[in-house]
């Protein structure tokens, strides 16, 4: 079973991730993980924290001479801002003189919860009198650790020609032009990857990870407007997993469905409030005859090399998953991110100590983090597909997994 856990606070010493269930023999480099961490930190509308932190992963265990050895992999990401928070986030008890000094600096207990954040709900759950005990772990900073784990999952999936791509489709009320195609004019296996790889490359060159230059200009204006208002703005990103074989996940139990795992994983990203699979909400407004993907079959002996063979579909409104099981088409997901909870023009709140009206607290935060959330979404999607892949084809070594997978492909043919 491929799984992971993370630990660490936003302004603590470091973030830690521990990965289990990765087979031995996979090439892993800190350089590849760090490239993914850099991608997560980019984006128009990010806050000053991104100028402080230059995330770099340090692999502490589970890898020898550049390859996984089958034991748990430990990853550490230093928080550079820790040097400014050593007393505030100390793990040892502070002397009363130090506490008084902190209070003089204005760094006393936080008692004004932000609407939309975990501050109040977390304090009520755990009985905290200082909201910092909540916000430090609830912070989206934790997603750096998940991005590092996702980088390892991506490397694993690359061994089986599975690619995860993403781009931003909306910021506020600004949308890109339609980019997905409902029908394929050709059936070449390489067409989808080539077409969507171009969109991905275009998005990677954009400060908003947006493949539509005209929409990007309007999106930047929307973010600038939010900055001038002391406000924040959300948006939508799309994910596409290409090359996923049929048969991942299961319809046999509710908690084995692949779409359920993917949706839960994406909603676990801070500020994500909705997830669509395939046509999503739009499907509820159509006739069944308009949305279900008709099934075709082509005998391999009657096709030219490189064309799809066996069962295939000319449309992908289902988004690559039917009945909780991958069907061999691209897995298509969209996630909606709400505006970030910390506002420079704070909303009304209540001080949890005095119970009196107060303005919500202000923490250093982004104005817009949708491009970063898309990169985290790639990581989460890669993790969940890797988990499902290992569940079906798992072995203790990469070679064993490849043998299992090859046998399945032969069976499909």
Could you give a short description of this structure?
With 413 residues, the protein is α+β, with helices and mostly antiparallel strands. The chain is built from twelve helices and 17 strands. The strands form six sheets. A five-stranded antiparallel beta sheet has the order 8-7-9-15-10. A four-stranded antiparallel beta sheet has the order 1-2-6-3. A two-stranded antiparallel ribbon has the order 4-5.
**Looking at CATH, which topology of the domain at 160-412 would you report?**
Chorismate synthase, AroC fold
From the structure provided, what is the oligomeric state, counting identical versus distinct chains? single chain
From the alpha carbons, calculate the radius of gyration and give it in angstroms: 23 Å
Count of individual helical segments: 12
Order of strands in the sheet with most strands? 8-7-9-15-10
Number of strands: 17
Shape: globular
What structural category characterises the helix and strand content?
Answer: alpha+beta
Bin the helical content.
25-40%
CATH H level, superfamily name of the domain at 160-412: Chorismate synthase AroC
Low-confidence stretches: 182-190
Query: Architecture of the domain at 160-412, according to CATH?
Result: 4-Layer Sandwich
- Main sheet attributes: strand count, strand direction, barrel closure: 5 strands, antiparallel
For the terminal residues, how far apart are their CA atoms? 27 Å
For the record, the CATH class of the domain at 160-412 is: Alpha Beta
Q: Taking all residues together, what is the mean pLDDT?
A: 91
Helix and strand succession?
EEHHEEEEHHHHEEHHEHEHEEEEEEEHH
Strand percentage lies at 15-25%
């Amino acid at each position: 079973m491929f799984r992971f856990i993370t630990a660490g606070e936003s302004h603590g010493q470091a973030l830690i991730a521990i990965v289990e269930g990765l087979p031995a023999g996979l090439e892993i480099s800190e350089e590849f993980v760090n490239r993914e961490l850099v991608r997560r930190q980019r984006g128009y509308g990010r806050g000053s924290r991104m100028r402080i932190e230059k995330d770099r992963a340090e692999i502490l265990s589970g890898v020898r001479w550049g390859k996984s050895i089958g034991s748990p992999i430990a990853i550490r990401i230093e928080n550079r801002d820790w040097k400014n928070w050593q007393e505030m986030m100390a793990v040892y008890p502070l002397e009363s003189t130090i506490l008084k000094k902190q209070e003089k600096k204005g760094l006393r207990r936080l008692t004004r919860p932000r609407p939309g954040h975990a501050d109040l709900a977390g304090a009520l759950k755990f009985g905290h009198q200082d909201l910092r005990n909540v916000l430090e772990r609830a912070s989206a900073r934790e997603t750096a650790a998940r991005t590092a784990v996702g980088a390892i999952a991506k490397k694993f999936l690359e061994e089986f020609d599975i690619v995860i791509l993403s781009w931003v489709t909306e910021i506020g009320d600004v949308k890109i032009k339609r980019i997905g195609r409902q029908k394929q004019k050709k059936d070449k296996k390489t067409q989808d990857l080539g077409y969507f790889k171009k969109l991905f490359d275009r998005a990677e060159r954009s400060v908003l990870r947006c493949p539509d230059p005209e929409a990007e200009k309007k999106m930047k204006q929307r973010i600038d407007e939010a900055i001038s208002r002391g406000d924040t703005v959300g948006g939508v990103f799309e994910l596409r997993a290409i090359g996923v074989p049929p048969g991942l996940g299961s319809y046999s139990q509710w908690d084995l469905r692949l779409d359920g795992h993917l949706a839960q994983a994406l909603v676990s990203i801070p500020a994500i409030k909705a997830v669509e699979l395939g046509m999503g909400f739009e499907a509820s407004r159509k006739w069944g005859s308009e949305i279900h993907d008709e099934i075709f079959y082509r005998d391999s002996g009657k096709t030219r090399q490189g064309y799809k063979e066996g069962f295939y579909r000319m449309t992908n409104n289902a988004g690559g998953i039917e009945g909780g099981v991958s069907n061999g088409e691209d897995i298509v997901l969209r996630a909606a991110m709400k505006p970030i909870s910390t506002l420079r023009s704070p909303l009304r709140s209540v001080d949890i100590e005095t119970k009196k009206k107060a303005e919500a607290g202000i923490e250093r935060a982004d104005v817009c983090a949708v491009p970063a959330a898309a990169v985290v979404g790639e990581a989460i999607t890669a993790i969940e597909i890797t988990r499902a892949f290992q569940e079906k084809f798992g072995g203790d070594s990469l070679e064993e997994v490849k043998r299992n997978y090859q046998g399945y492909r032969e069976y499909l043919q």
